[in-house]
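Entry 12.
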Amino acid sequence: MSDKEDVKERQVGAVDSELSQDNSIPSSRDGEVDVFAEVAHPPRTIGALEVLSAGFNVCNSWAGVAASMFLAIFQGGPVTIIYGCIVILFLMGATALSLAELSARYPTAGGQYHWTAILAPKKYARGMSYTVGTINMFGWVAICAGICIIMPQIIMGIVVFYNNDFVILQWHSFLIYQVLNVSVLVYNLFILPKAAWTHNIGFALSLLCFIIFFITCLAIAGPKQPNEYVWNTFVNDSGWPDGIVFLTGLVNPNFMYSGLDGAIHLAEDCINASTAVPQALMATIVIGFVTTFAFVVAMFYCISDFDAVLMTPTAVPIYEIWNQATKSETAATIFIVLLLLTGIFALNASQMHQGLGVPPYALFFNSFVVFIIGCIYLGSTTAFSAIIGTGLVLQQLTFAIPAALLMIRGRAPQYLPSSGRWNLGKFGWFVNGVTVAWSALQLVLYNLPLALPVSGSTMNYTCAVLGCMAIFALVNWFAYARTRYAGPKIDLTKFHNVPFGKPSDEGVPGELLGVPPNTRRLIVSKDHMGIRNIRPVVDGVEPSEDGSAWYEVLGEPNASLDAEIEVLYNGLFLRRVRSTITDQNRERGTWTITCPPLVSPYNVDCIEEANQGSSWLHYTQLDADVKGLTVCRWDNRNIGFHFFTGLTVDYRRFVSHMKQQYSDSFLTWMYFPINPGESITDVWTRKDEVIDENIRSSGPSVVLETSLCRTMTFGAYIPYKETPSSQPTSQMRPHQSRSLLRSGDGAISGIFHNGFDPISPFITEFGVICDSRRARKPSKQIPSSQVYLYPTPWANSLVWTYEYEDAHDEWYLTKAPLEGLTEVQFCQDREQRKHPCIGLILHYGDGHTESLGQFRWDLTVSDIIITPIRIEICSDEDRRFNNP
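Predicted 3D structure (tokens):
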């Protein structure tokens, strides 16, 4: 019960928080779909097993059917329950496939209402996402209240079982209902954050109880019912035709998958959510059907008196079935208590609050709503039953709307890329159609009166409750949400293979460029803000002059940075950085090594007393919840590093501190994002050091290696030998370069820079501490093999002069594998405003993304600093990006 509540609480909190947003940061593709930057989300701490356990605990399939068996026992009996499980497997299996396909592409805690915002036309996206979010919230409230009331009914059933003269009053169930509601609130607030392993325990307990009940009842019960009874007994005293009774009776086996989307709403707590969530959905379907079907068949074989089950004074048919099967009141009671535990024990960890590890406001709100609905039960059980009767209908409706929008969109690649896992292809049309049809059928079937002729006692008031909910949503929309609800905040760049436009060869801002099979090169023009233009070059076609008008001052006046990235079968490389001055038009270096990077704690240069490297080199293993690295740079050197998990207090302090310390300086900010499911496995940081009297490094260094074998280097590159101040800078001599790389290390995804900047004695207490005053010259007794690394590939060929002393240049070395590359996305800021910009976003068929290029802000740091890319897209012809 509380597992369903807690998942619903995540949604209520998400919807409520977004109702207060007054604006958004749109980034639409094709001028139709709004995409919004996402606020900080919690650390991902739940693994695949925990997601599966939580997803199954929410449904608790066999236990849910057992506890709600009274719903179908009079509406078809064994035939409806047994064959209904098969029908529901087909219908909800198709629904789960639709959800799995979407959650693999868009793993977000908002689930259905986020997908609606993505798939709906821009004109209707905000209103439709509001509608789906509201429906989903109402659905979870109804499901939570329904599960919550079952527990008191079972407890009262135990009392009546031992005292047939006991009269159950509504306030009895009401008190137990509210005690359970408060207990779940306390547990979720204070116990669950420290005991997330209860997901797995609850899952194991549910399966263990199923095995015990299944084996015990079959072993003890006797004689067994004949096959004719089990498979052909149909009960119909409603006045409806048998077919209608069977269909309306599906509500009981439908409870196998009540709260099926629970795993979806844990996506932002889940490691590798794009894989784990779809797997949890399908595993819940399979395990739920196997356990439920086996359970109900076994129980009907073990019944000895079906009339006693129908007329049991406990109002809990499964209690009477266990009593008949085990021939023991004590055993039946133990079984029913264990059934209670499988519901109460299914608690879900929802880690959102930085202090408590849970969403407290959502928890309190959920508990309050469940409390109010319990008060309705105290006044009218009919009204209460109508409210909880809407749960399944509303749940399926939220599944159907995104599926319908996906079909309306033609399941086009820009909305549902064909690459990657969980790609249903043409079969997706079928499962989407079944999902929508089943929702329409539920709207009719689950609103029909219970019996004919219709009277006040047999009327199904679910339709009236649905109408009231619709009126409430409409009033809230026009009175409040229409002007304040901004829509879900989604960072689509973290999703796998999410396109932003139709592939073409034109340089449209934010557009995805299709990669032809015979592509060998991508010609890219860039400057200090990132990629400006990109176009593929195929076999047999010589690249033409790019003619870019953008340039950046490098080490020589009037020089520009032209980058040509050549796409080979084994990777993407920065091929050329050259001066554009006529008499010095030399290639600065060509990086063509294809072997992977090699990083080790001792892969640094000139460390004094190498056997005691800890005094110079800091090695750290970071937690898996780190979302990335932000580097603060001043005058082309690193002055601060911060590994962050979100917009935490420490992170804001870091940004504020850097601004205060360098308030009169021009700061830039670099960003290295971490993919969903990826983590930083190794980190090495090096302090500033003096190599000799004439050589100094340009800043502290940090080297990262991730679980996806990606490497990022922010660090010193020392290309020159300083000359005495009495000599002109034009007489400086090139120095054999030292860096964090050896010649065999290959290309690095990251940034090298060099410069004449002075050594900084202090970086920041929030980042890497650097105190170069402790730096000393390396001991001459240390063999060079232990101190110096091999030069970079181009080091010995660099011959150029500097025109002024404070000149500097930046090298952007990039590498990403070509194998499995499906789409290339680029971003540019045509007007060079204060918007962050990153070079390339590469999407791969296995679901991960790579980012190549820079990410920086001019003068200011954006509030969406954890977002790796902000794309401005416009379909208007007058705003299309055209190369000069």
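Annotation: The mean pLDDT is 63. The radius of gyration is 32 Å.
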